[in-house]
Structures are given as structure tokens and as C-alpha cells.
Amino acid sequence: MFTVVPLFLLFGSLQFGAAEAEPNPPHSLDMITLNTNYTLTWDWDQSSVGSDPVTFTVQYTGNHQLKKKTPRWNTACRETTGRSCDLTGFNLHYLGLYMLRVQANVNGSHSVWEYKQFCPDKEAAIGPPSKVRLSAAVAALDIVITDPQTSSNSSMRDLLKLSFQICYWEQSEDGKVLNHETFITESNMPTLSNLTPWTQYCVRVQSRYEYYNKTSSFTPPQCIQTEGVVPWWKIFLYFLSSLLLCFLVVLVFIYGGHQCFQFCKATLFPGEKLPSPLKHHEIDYPCLLVSDSELDLCDPVIICVESAILENNVDPAADSTGPPVGLGQDSSGRHSRQNSSSSGDSGVYSAGGNSGALQHNIASTFPDVKRHFDSEQLKMLSMKSDFKVCPVIPDEGVVDMEV
């Protein structure tokens, strides 16, 4: 008896020490879900172990594995210091049933497992439509709804039967809500008809899963104005505005093209101007200005009227009767000799002393020739008064002969 009592006391003290060393298990297990995104969270009392560090291990298995003697548990998070574990990446089937468990670890000691059953189809929250677009029509609105998306960017409609609850109302200018209406549809492209034309309407949409009566939050309100029949005066005003705009565009294009052309022309082909020494303001045709020293080096210039002018202006009747009055025997003979020569004679009369009488007779007989001759002299004299006119040298190499 004496020996048995100490052994009993020793065994009891060892059991009590082991019970004290085991940490408390986690508690308040909960799932934060949205569509197919799942996160397990829990709480734990840190005061039970003081300042000792604590970690947690999370495992999961299918509910059908619990019927086996040794279920196969899959570790989702190992020795994590946080109070949550993300299960999204483990592809838990949306229509499956799973068992989750969490264990606390303190200085090599492990707590008992804390369990939680999870069915995504029943417990996972459903999200609102990923996108809503409005399009205005005549007294109507067209709505385009994009389904909620899974974690793999596929439609939630592939996993459950979706429907949408649509709320819409008129938005007055002062911000008041008028004529609030609601309806449920399974279509992704519903139309709100029989609306008031040229009126501001606001729309928000909610996802629904009728089997488990799950609903999502509403999308932010979107507002748009309905259209109506455009009056004729607006059409006419738009037409005039378009014509005016086209006219202005063409005018600017023409003016800009002209200015660009003038600029390019002035740049690439500048106007040539005579230098100031070559300008002559008294006459309207260009002339060569020379100095007195250059004139002294020039030969004398004789200016005479061509014989072709005289021949073209001679009256045939007067020519048949004989030489004009005032022409002597010498002048007629010389005239005949000059007309008969074909060796390159220039046909210009240079009869020495008889030239004065010849000019007088030509002037009296052919007034047109005189005027032409005078005008030619005036032009030549006006070009430069410094030209030297040499006296007519008598033709000494010509011998007068009578026939």
C-alpha cells in the first residue's frame, strides 16, 4: 500500500502537466466568400500562452472521405502566423461539400483540431454583375448586363441559375427620385420601354440565385437621358450648321493654301529687281547708260532710214512717170544703179550733198515717211543726247553715168 500511493500520485502529476502544456484550439471559424473566392478565418486567445509564438495549420477534405477509416486530408496552409487561410487556389468544386479543420501550434505542442463544414453552393455569396452598360433609344433604354465572374474569369452562370433584379427611376433636375420601378429578368440584354422621352433615368442591377435565395449587392447607379423624335427645326438647324462648318473649312483651306503658295513662291523664286544705277525714270524701255570716257572710244554712228520703207511707200503711178520732182540727173542715175546692184548693197541712200534735197522731196511727196523718219530721230535723240552723229560722207567711189 505504501508503494502504490506514490506511483499513483506520480502518474496523476504527469497527466496534469501534459494537459497544461497543450495549447487551446482556435475558435469562431468562419468563411469569407464571393462567387468562387473562399477564405477561412478564425480567432485564438493569445493570453493562454503569454508571449510565446503561435502558428496554425489548415487542412481540408471532401465530406465523402470522412466515411473512410483513414481520410485523406489536404494541407492548405502550414505553420502560418496569420488568422486566415485562402482556399481559392485549391479549386474547391462549387457544388461539393467539404470539411475544414484548424490546429494551433505553440513551442512544438499542438492543440486539438477545430472543424467546420463548408458547401460553396449553399454558403458562398454571389457577386453583382461585373459590368452594366446603358444605351438610350426613343422613349426606351437598352441595358447590357455582364454576368458575375469566377476566380478563373468565367461566368457564374455556368455554375448556377442566375437572374437579375433591375431597379430604375426618373431623376429630376433637383435630384429627386420619381416613379421608382423594379422587375426581375434572366436576360442579359433587357429593354426598358414606354419611358418618357428626353428624360433622365437611373438604373442599378442586382444578381439573384433563387434556389438558396441568395442576392448580391446592387451595382452603382448609372444615369442616361432617353431620346425622342427630333423636331424639324432642329434638323434644319443641324443642316445649316454643317453647311457653315464646311464653308469655313473650305475657306480656311483655300486661304491657307494661297498663303502657303505665296510664301513658297517668294522663298524659292524671289522677284528680280534692277539695281538703282540701271533704273531710268524718264522712259519706259531699258537703255544702256555709258560714261563720257566710253563714248570717246566709240566709232561714229550713222542713223538712216531703210530703203525698203521708201520702196513700200512709193506710189506706182508716180514711179511710172519718172523720178520725183527735185531729183536731178545724178540722183536718178545713182538710184538706178543702186537698185540694179545685187552684190549685197544695203539699199540705204547716202548721196552726200544731195541728201538734204532728197529728204525735202521725200517729205513733200511721202508725208507718212517724213513722220516716220522724224519719230525715229526723236526716239534716238531722246535715248542719249551725248551720241555723236557724224556728217554724211559723200560717196566718192561712185561715178555718175548717163544713159
Automatic annotation (TrEMBL):
Residues 315-350 are annotated as: Disordered. The chain crosses the membrane at residues 232-255. It holds the Pfam family Interfer-bind. Residues 1-21 form the signal peptide. It comes from the Eukaryota. Keywords: Membrane, Signal, Transmembrane, Transmembrane helix. The keyword Cytoplasm does not apply. Residues 128-229 form the Fibronectin type-III domain. Residues 338-350 have a biased composition (Low complexity). The keyword Membrane applies. This is Fibronectin type-III domain-containing protein. The lineage of its organism: Eukaryota, Metazoa, Chordata, Craniata, Vertebrata.
